[in-house]
Amino acid sequence: MATLLLGFFFLFSLIILAYYLAFFAFASDKTKNSGSVNLPVSVIVCAKNEAENLKNFLPPILEQDYPDFEVIIINDASQDETLEVIENFQALDGRVKLVDVQNNEAFWANKKYALTLGIKKARNPYLIFTDADCAPQSRNWITHMAAGFQEEKSIVLGYGGYFKNSKSLLNKLIRFETLLTAIQYFSYAKLGNPYMGVGRNLAYTSKQFYDQKGFANHLHLRSGDDDLFVNEGGNEENTFICHHPEATTRSVPKTDLKSWFHQKRRHASVAGFYKTKDKFLLGLFYVSRFFFWILLAVLLIIQFQWELVLGVAGLVLLLQAIVYAKSAQKLQETDVVWLFPFLEVFLIFTQFGIYIANSVSKPTHWK
Fold it and tell me: Which spans are transmembrane here (predicted)?
């Protein structure tokens, strides 16, 4: 029995090594945007009860050092002062355009419906998306994201991180999970298989949107306006990854475990609608890591070939550390790397809890 467990441990270790070798596609990537551009851009922000966040984070968008852009703010049936805040910005800056969405019985609490109305409002063919609680981390955010549209690219994947709180372990967990997700979707895209993007920092052309009939194929799902859209329309030829530090946006993270768990449940609820190959690859990655840690603990407890087991585990962890360190340096998340074994184990079992919770019932609204 112990020999069989050791065999499975070796198998899952090899699978993990293969994945992290593939992740070097992003960790070692030195691709730069090919110069500045002057494409007409529409920045689209969907806001639901985001009055305070718009006050804080809309100014950095309006202060972008870019010559030709408008900002479409969608008030998605807010119940706070979001509409008034948008109207105030609109009075001060002619680039701000308002889309006021009323509750619709057929599309109630459906962000995709609101986004579709915003996209139809946009006068420019190049669209950049972010959330109301996000802030660009430089005045050149639009410049770098727009530059990704060169060479006939119609989808640009950016990095949407979270603000740092050095005193919070939950903050480190959230940012580590975000880092790992980015490593995956950037690496897959670099290898010719873009499978998702994040709405906190995503761009595509209006032609791409209309050619794939917008969100029509998954409009019935409350989430997935970002990842399912990319999963459906992204390919090796039309997708560009933009990981320049000045192209980053950062969001306000959850401050309690319950809220973050609910947020991740909502994000995970659409993964079952990915393409079959993507579900397989993502599922195998998770299962391998899950059983790697389980079998490592069991084999060390029974002390079966423990020297060999520790040697293999050390090799796996070393490769992971290198990939995390290089990737974190690119995305400016270096403070989470040294905690990665603990954060990874906690994240794996949290994801297991999310899977169980979503099997019982799925989240129904985007907010």
Answer: 6-26, 280-302, 308-325, 337-357
Residue 190 to residues 303, 335, 338, Cα–Cα distance (Å): 41, 25, 26
Q: In which element (H, E) is residue 256 found?
A: none
CATH class of 31-256: alpha beta
**What span, in angstroms and rounded, lies between the C-alpha atoms of 296 and 311?**
11
Q: Mutual orientation of helices 306-331 and 340-360 as an angle, nearest 10°?
A: 90
Q: pTM higher than 0.90 for the full model? A: yes
Q: Is 185 exposed, middle or buried (0-12, 13-18, 19+ CB in 10 A)?
A: buried
The Cα–Cα gap between 173 and 292 comes to 20
- Side chain identity, residue 202: L
DSSP 69: E
State the DSSP code for 123: -
Nearest to 225 by CA among 217, 73, 21: 217
Q: Which residues contact 131 (CB under 8 A, 6 or more apart)?
A: 45, 46, 160, 199, 200, 251
Q: Which two tokens stand for residue 331?
A: 């995305």
User: Residue 54 has which token pair?
Assistant: 């718009």
Q: How far is CA 162 from CA 100, 183, 282, 331, 333, in A?
A: 28, 15, 23, 11, 10
Name the residue ranges covered by the structural domains of the chain.
2-25+277-360, 31-256
Each residue's pLDDT tens digit, 6-53: 999 999 999 999 999 999 989 888 776 656 678 999 999 999 999 999
Q: How many helices (H) and strands (E) does the chain have?
A: 13, 10
Please, are residues 210 and 166 in contact by the beta-carbon 8 Å criterion?
no
CA torsion angle for 283, 290, 173, 264 (degrees, to 10)? 40
pLDDT at 106: 46
Distance of alpha carbon 195 from alpha carbon 136, whole angstroms: 24
Token pair in block for residue 69: 């852009």
Can you give the length of the chain in residues?
367
CB 186 within 8 A of CB 239: no
